[in-house]
## 1
Amino acid sequence: MIYLKTDEEIELMRVANRLVGATLAEVAKNIAVGVTSLQLDKIAEEFIRDHGAIPLFKGYNGFPNALCISINENVVHGIPGAYQLKEGDVVSVDCGAKINGYCGDSAYTFEVGEVAPEVKKLLQTTKEALYVGISNAVEGKRVGDIGNAIQTYCESRGYGVVRELVGHGIGKDMHEAPEVPNYGKKGYGPLLKSGMCIAIEPMINRGTKNVKFEKDKWTVRTADRKPSAHFEHTVAIRPGKADILSTFDLIDQVINRRDAL
Ligand code: MG
Ligand code: MG
């Protein structure tokens, strides 16, 4: 069952997703060598709760924290802990929040200090692939058009597109129908209709597309231990152009300010 949202519901979704964007910007401010991923998680949880929202991931199927923090070869679902960030790391931070009964979900991969050029390129390509996917998230197209666009963009540049994890519908629940894979065939899959809200989230690897699940039952890592990147937006399907409900604007402000120093 795919739920189409009313305009009022989409505005509520925007509130939740903007809060997620603001939370990720708080995380961005605190990313530095020596900081632990658990410290970042605490900052995010406090920020979310201070704004009257609930961290969506905490307690979800028993997940222990507010953020998923996946470093370097970890793709997604990393559990925050005592690991201290070091120069050259890439840190994927996935954040979800619920407020007024609606969910926000967005992710961004951050660089710690100077990152190797080929890893920088991976992040850049994954972010671009997200927007390539979004450009296909319009009324009248199909879910397969989104996946095909992301897959083609990344594979033609030599990257691996993770198959085991996918984007999803989102609304009152974090995970609603349909599934939104980052691969697929043009013209296949559920029809996109105005009012559908979906999270598009390419998970792209520097090497093989294959992943392994760690013993903690959560962390997903690349099979070849090469780095991975993850960017995610929640969008509403509209005629002609998707309405991006989450935002990287606040994150980019933090990063640009830092680069200007
Ligand atoms: Mg997410
Ligand atoms: Mg998601």
Note: The first strand starts at residue 54 and ends at 55.
## 2
Amino acid sequence: MPYKLLFVCLGNICRSPAAENIMNHLIQQEGLSGQIVCDSAGTSSYHIGSPPDRRMMIAAGDRGIPMQGQARQFSPHDFKEFDLILAMDRENYANICSLDPTGKFKGKTRLMCDFCTEHSLREVPDPYYGGAQGFTHVIDLLMDACNGLLNHVKQELATKTDGLR
Ligand code: 4NP
């Protein structure tokens, strides 16, 4: 069974698809495709069915990351489906937690920036109403967080394997 990651933002057209595509890029580079799988979703229904925002595609492309995807909305079913749910900001985190009133899945819901090692920001800022620079900043922040997250998941997978011995 692969380790399953779900990245969540508001619209699922800027930050979370960028995180998903960056993470897939890193997973491929490490030869871990099949062992770690990624998806993304939005807490809102605003952009269901839309491709990633063009401005985010350009910023990611500039860093050598091709982007693909189609927006969908986060569903409570995702709590069972995924091993780790990564919220881009505190509002996303609160909206996800509001769909888990008993707190059963609190342990698998985290802020993406918890995995940053080079940046001190606690949230991935919403770039939607800003300029191109905001999108590039999101990519750089997510590169840092995804590298930290990959190390974390590799440790989790190693612990799982140990448990099977
Ligand atoms: P995202 O960015 O949550 O990173 O996908 C946004 C996309 C759309 C909107 C806000 C943020 N919107 O208000 O439509």
Note: Residues 9-15, 46, 126, 128 surround 4-nitrophenyl phosphate (CB under 6 Å).
